[in-house]
Amino acid sequence: MNQEKIGKFISELRKDKNMTQLELSNKLGISDRTISKWENGRGMPDISLFDPLCKELNISINELLKGERIKSNKNETQITAEILTEYSKYLKKKERRKITSLLVVIVLFIFILFSIFILFFNKTFFGTMYNSDFISNVSIPIPKFSYYRGTGGMEEYTTKLKTLKQPDEINVFIDQYLSSLDIIKCNNETYYYNSRNDFTIIQYRANNDGIGFVNTIYISYTNGNICN
User: Fold this and answer.
1) Are 205 and 174 within 8 A, CB to CB?
2) CB of 215 within 8 A of CB of 132?
């Protein structure tokens, strides 16, 4: 079914009768904007309007849905069945488009709500540094687009971040940062000391369990040099 052809056909017949879109719309009890959509091929008349529209334009429903004059009525019944089948397919296709558009709107709405939630509650989202609320001098580089999940602990704090970046990429970033710090060892453990800001990184790692596409980053730190 050719919407553009039908639209042009309606437009030609309306003009042949010296009717404006507004005049035709008033006769059918609809808006002239609806007529304009039909004639521009951006919509089709509702099935309830077939009969009154065809009467105003002096055509048959067959001719309306065919988008042209039918010279012979010999195969009119056959054409009607064929065209109505096409129109039924058109309506189903239109309904699927509506459902798809609605689903897209719902998904976008959920995504926007999720983004607002993250932006409101997660201070590190879109940031490149994590700044501790518990120790004023702690500022730690983090992978971009990570978002804050929470910090727990007393004297030693562990912060959890979430990221879409993969563990291999995260580990390269972590190794580059840790290599800029002083390596200190005590109690058979290796730590990383930031002598400039006077805090120790106890652990900085990505959760590499391979579950899902969102990975967790753990950063444990404490004030001062843990080995002193």
Assistant:
1) yes
2) no
CB 204 within 8 A of CB 178: yes
**One-letter amino acid identity for 88?**
S
How many angstroms separate the Cα of 99 from the Cα of each of 10, 25, 87, 88?
28, 28, 18, 17
One-letter identity of residue 86? E
> How many Å apart are CA 37 and CA 34, to the nearest integer?
5
Contact between residue 167 and residue 216 where contact means Cβ atoms under 8 Å apart: no
Q: How do the pLDDT tens digits run along the chain, 228 residues long? A: 688 999 999 999 999 999 999 999 999 999 999 999 999 988 888 888 888 999 999 998 888 888 898 876 554 544 565 666 677 677 777 778 888 889 999 999 998 887 777 656 655 556 789 989 889 899 999 998 888 778 888 889 999 988 888 888 999 999 999 999 999 999 899 999 999 999 999 999 998 655 567 889 999 999 999 998
Please tell me the distance from the alpha carbon of residue 35 to that of residue 33, in angstroms, as a whole number: 5
For the question of whether the overall pTM of this predicted structure is more than 0.90, the answer is: no
Q: Residue 39: is it exposed, middle or buried by C-beta count within 10 angstroms (0-12/13-18/19+)?
A: buried
Residue 49 CB-half CA count within 13 A:
19
Query: How many of the other CB atoms lie within 10 Å of CB of 166?
Result: 13
